[in-house]
Amino acid sequence: MEKKRESGEVLEHMLLEEIKLEQIDFMDPPVEWDLESHQKEPYVPPILIEERDSEIVDGENASVRYTLLAHHRSFWRMLAKRPLSIRALVVRSNVHIPLAHESIVNCTEEALLFDGLLRNRLCENRSRLSELLGYSRARITQILNLLKLPSGMRRKLLLTDEISEFQLRPLVRIIDTKKQMTMFSHLIGSKLTGRQMALFIDGKKEKKKNTKPGIEELMSEDHSSNGSAVHDQRDKPEPDSQDKDDPGIRTAHIRELIHRVSSLKINEWEANAREAGATETDIMLLQGVFMLRRGLYERAIDILEIVVENNPDYAPAYFYLGRCGNLTGDLVSAENYLKTALELVPDDPDYLIEFAIVLEKLKRNTEASTFYKKSGLLRKRFSED
């Protein structure tokens, strides 16, 4: 996660409350926790939330409980001093939510915050939470999915802020807990990127990026409105099911599907797409793309967000969500979506161009120029290949 300020700066002037330690529910530190190794870290007041299911006795709330949501390492260090109470930020309203969120740099703590807010109805639903924080609904879901990881793994993640949600995303999909822990240990030891982690879990080596078949032709046609530019792909072999899991190959495959069906009548495109090897997820993506091209942006966004919620590594859906954001003026969402698309497929010229356009609209011209240049170089390289 990218934060504008350090955690301590955000909470420095917040009104903190004195909370008795016996009222706080918290996770014990993992066995790897070493007080001395974290002693020099800046102290950040813990973030708590009051659980709403407490009982009222004789006009007083006799069983108020608080749950620790963030800054666990600071909390654990305080425990060593055996205090009777601690000063903490208790999130009680929408005013506290953005400030508390901005102070968090650990992805697991971010998930715990979201869960606490939704569980205690401080946010009515994920849509409201996304409005408060400037996140997409799909992004909220991706972060909450981290809570599907085993509790022991989540405790280990509280020890480091260096692991991102994107790196952990492939682990969430693994059902076998033992395999999950093995992959997690490899992630910690090798410090893999999210893309490398996904490939490692799938048992594949990362492919060279200049081996994408016909990518320049596919990319140049994506922006064409001329239906005659669509080529018949029947004689081309379809990627096998494992190759389709690679984000780069999947992106090229989706473009082929779009080119193939874009000039067909509305009652023909789905059958033609299935004949070309489209999955149910591909069909839903195509529905979203067609809504986008007809200017029905809200309907397109609804469809595409369902795609990424169920398929967090589906790069084309993030790209077209980014394009929706660009076209509707929601540039913050567009930037976030396109960043995710580029994390999955770093050297896609179309993704780079769209990202550069968004950055230019955000008046970040130097950054935009870098991505324009990179896209141009890649197009030239692919055309030479």
Q: What do these coordinates show?
A:
With 385 residues, this protein is an alpha/beta fold. The chain has 3 domains: 7-161, no CATH class; 165-206, no CATH class; 209-384, Alpha Horseshoe (Serine Threonine Protein Phosphatase 5, Tetratricopeptide repeat). It is 54% helix and 7% strand. The protein is built from 20 helices and 7 strands. The protein has helices at 7-11, 72-79, 96-102, 107-119, 126-133, 137-144, 151-157, 165-172, 177-190, 194-201, 215-222, 241-244, 247-261, 269-275, 280-293, 297-310, 315-328, 331-344, 349-361, 365-384; strands at 17-20, 24-25, 47-50, 56-57, 60-61, 66-70, 85-91. Strands 1-7-3-6-2 form a 5-stranded mixed beta sheet. Strands 4-5 form a two-stranded antiparallel ribbon. The radius of gyration is 24 Å and the shape is elongated. The two termini are 37 Å apart. Mean pLDDT is 78; it is low at 1-5, 54-59 and 205-244.
CATH level-four homologous superfamily name of the largest domain: Tetratricopeptide repeat domain
Helix content: 40-55%
H and E string = HEEEEEEHEHHHHHHHHHHHHHHHHHH
Give the overall pLDDT as a whole number: 78
